[in-house]
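Pipeline run #58 for the internal structure catalog. This entry was flagged by the ingest filter as a single-chain record with no existing model, so it goes straight to prediction. Upstream metadata was stripped on purpose; only the residue string is passed forward. Reviewer on rotation: M.T. Logging verbosity set to normal.
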Amino acid sequence: MPEKLVTISTLARLLKTTNHTIRYYEDEGLFKPAEIAPNGYRKYGMPQAYQLSFILFLRQLDFSVASIKQILQTNPSVTDLLLTKKIAIQTERHRLEQLEKILDDQLNIHQSSASPTLKVATPIYLQSVKRLPIDYDFGITEIMDGNWNPDFILRKLYYVITPDYYDICLVSTNSY
């Protein structure tokens, strides 16, 4: 019994994509129809549906069309490919979580800027970035000499003041 083939419109509807996307992937050499009928209609079977669903999945994972083409040509271990992408996603998620914390801190600073006193709900640990004499007027260059990080400007600075000196501090991730 010959395999039942479907048109490009049916395949697009089944995989929740567009005819244009399928033609584009064909033009890029990612896959081919099972047959092209005499009237020019493209026909697809289960192997093409599986391959297109894999291509669409890789696109959801943000692989470029060129990368997908290389993946399909070299046929690497799918497990290795997915593990590598999972690690990249975890790394990006961690970066975004750190950025979200900075945004939350900035929102708290701006929302509570009317109050001269900062209320700390949980204990914080400070790391001294720079110790300066009490009469010293510092600038950004003194801080850059310490633990400089590009997001430094967006982080909260704390000052620990004594009669002789003051420490410029940042919140530390280490509890001592």
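catalog note: The longest strand covers residues 126-133.
catalog note: DSSP finds six helices and six strands in the chain.
status: ready for reviewer M.T.
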